[in-house]
Amino acid sequence: MESRAPPTAGPSTARGVAASGVNGTPLSLRAPVPRDLHGDVGERAQVTAAMDATFAETGAAPAPLLQGLWEYVRAGQEEILLSPYLPASCALLMHVLLCAPFLALDALGSVCQRVRSWRITAGSEPPPTPRQWLDCFCRILCRYVTVVLPASALFQRLRSPRLPQLAPSCWQLFVEVLACVLLFDAFFFVWHYYIHRIPWLYRSIHKAHHQHRNPFALAAQDASSAELLSLLLLSLSCAWLLGCHPLSEVIFHLLNSWLAVEDHCGYNLPLASHRLFPFLGGAPHHQTHHKIKCFNYAPYFTHWDHLFGTYRPPVLDPRESQECRAQ
């Protein structure tokens, strides 16, 4: 009698097993994985396959453009992309690059009346000098090297990130980035509110940031080491809690960095984000917080301040700061 080999599972069956796990239990994208990034190659491949199956189960095929971009980013760069030092290093680099246009505006303001008119404090205070920019950069760099970089690297090792082969769909990318920004805005509001309400927390963590009554772009990260670290971990945690695709996480961090720089830039530009999207507060909203510390705690959106009665329309007269007790 001719013996027949047992049937092998086809691609769809294999994908279903990878996605369902044992006894049909769904495998989460963030299921526990080995923490050693240089561990067994086969085990890492299984984890990546499970992640791909999870993304495939969303029912939306990755956009060709996003898939091509994701494959280009991943090609031969996996060890670099999984480096625990990458997030903090990129955060600092992107912050400096995003601040460059506002440094140029500060320089142009000395010769162009139109640029000067865009400054929120036009006519009352001059723009920051190059020496102020340099001193600010040196403080930020020192805090990143000594505290933020090693601490965030430890957090990344605990996360054990993986790189799936499939890119997200356009809709998945949009939803995940928007969800991350909203979640970060909510977490930051609570964190910021209590930092100001508890005196010893304000003095030990947040007071250094408020040395800038009229902030400029680079000053968005001119804060204590504890504050810089807490905000970086907060942004990383948002993407981790939502189980975002790594590409969505990258876009979120870029957008988050830009919004923070824009909040502190000191300019009310004609095409600023808060002019295009009225639900954003923008630089006038946050500069009011630097003038009057007990209002406008949310970083980007204004709905939390409206809900909790801490919203204040942009008021840029320095005398208004007398309404609050000096902190």
- Global morphology: globular
Structural class: mainly alpha
Radius of gyration using CA atoms only:
23 Å
Helix and strand string, N-terminal first? HHHHHHHHHHHHHH
- Major beta sheet, specifics? none
Low-confidence stretches: 8-45, 318-327
Q: How many domains make up the coordinates?
A: 1
Percent helix: 55-70%
Number of DSSP helical runs: 14
In total, the number of strands is: 0
What is the average of the pLDDT values? 81
Distance between the termini: 90 Å
What portion of residues belong to β-strands?
under 5%
GO molecular function, one term: iron ion binding
Transmembrane segments: 173-195
Subcellular location: Membrane
GO biological process, one term: lipid biosynthetic process
